[in-house]
Amino acid sequence: MNTKPTQFTTRACVTALYNIMGEELEKHSALNDVLPTNFPAERGAEALDSRSRRIKLTEIIVKLFNATAEKSPLLIVMHACQFFDNSSSSLLRQILRRCKGTCVLVSTRSEAGLVDFADLEKYGCRTKLLPLLPLSKELSIQLVKKTLGVSELEQGIVDVVMNRTQGIPFYCVEFARVVKDSPGGAVSELPDTITGAILLRIDRLLPAPKLVLKIVAVAGKNVRASLIADVVPAQFTTEDLQAELEYLVSLDILIRDRNGYCFRHEMVQEVVLGFLTFSQKRFLHKRIANYYVNSDAEVSAATLAIHFELAAKGMDQSELDVPACKRAI
To answer: What's the rounded Cα separation, in Å, for the pair 160 and 329?
Structure first.
């Protein structure tokens, strides 16, 4: 989380941790190393050196994961992991050894570092490498054809799309959609990068669906239509808003997520966030936080704390209703 620890993030973390660990939760300052918390540093005899602090942090995390696994199976996902530093590798080894029934999924472009965990089999841990290879040229072409809704492709489209996608399924689909939306399916408008392709698709939308995407991008996951209507009450009727959401679903930009909507791919969400200025993001975070405070919609304390924190960035403390924030979290 790219959020500086504050009283709001600390309170949210304590609430979430207490729900899992109950009275066993230890509010130790070592947690500040991995969570956006502001627990006071221990003094005197309770102060720890760096090595003892790492051991203490490991003990707390192991207790947390074991408490979680007692309630339901635990899966730890490490996405886009480029390398394992010694501290991270040591912590992960301790978790795998001491947290029974825990599954760790690591996605990485390199196998380097994963071999370090092969010896864990003697502790009852099993490791398996699942290589995710690019699509073959034939499968890539089939995916592009399916996206375009055609049975044959011009050689020019095949060459241009293949040169830009490198067999990555998401890239194949996004570039194909740009071709589909281009006048006459012209490949001359095809951008050189995947980010450029997404930008072009979003830029072609009318203002109304663009506004919906911006709100969903800031709100995150499980975004209800009622949240969007509350953030910009004068922009849509109920019917129009639902139509815009279904239109964006039909374009495969949004998908239905439990009781609401979210982006199909986080890369598209990041591109949409790039359209927003700092003040626009802060305004939307404030309106979203107010919606959750005044509605019956389910929201975690951590999510609410993030919206409050980002809404307060650059704001004078006198402008922020601190008691309301505390009550909500």
So the answer is: 51
Neighbours of 126 (CB within 10 A): 8
299, 292 in Cβ contact below 8 A? Answer: yes
pLDDT of residue 184: 60
Measure the CA–CA gap between 232 and 288, rounded to whole angstroms. 10
Helix (H, G, I), strand (E, B) or coil at 170: helix
User: Each residue of 101-119: pLDDT tens digit?
Assistant: 888 888 776 666 666 677 7
Phi, psi of 74 (to 5 degrees): -110, 125
| Number of neighbouring beta carbons within 10 Å of residue 254 | 25
* Angstrom distance (rounded) from CA 318 to CA 33: 30
Contact assessment for residue 229 and residue 236, using Cβ atoms and an 8 Å cutoff: yes
Contact between 116 and 88 under an 8 Å Cβ cutoff? The reply is no
Question: Distance between CA 180 and CA 145 in Å, rounded?
Answer: 10
- 304 in Cβ contact with 328 (< 8 Å): yes
> What is the Cα–Cα distance from 186 to 161, expressed in whole angstroms?
12
The Cα–Cα gap between 164 and 129 comes to 27
Pair of tokens at residue 268: 């598209």
Angle, in degrees to the nearest 10, between helices 301-312 and 278-294: 140
Q: pLDDT tens across 221-245, in order?
A: 889 999 999 998 888 899 999 999 9
Distance of CA 239 to the CA centre of its chain: 29
Instruction: Tell me the backbone φ, ψ of residue 110, rounded to 5 degrees.
Output: -125, 145
3-class DSSP assignment, residue 74: strand
Mean residue pLDDT of the chain comes to 84
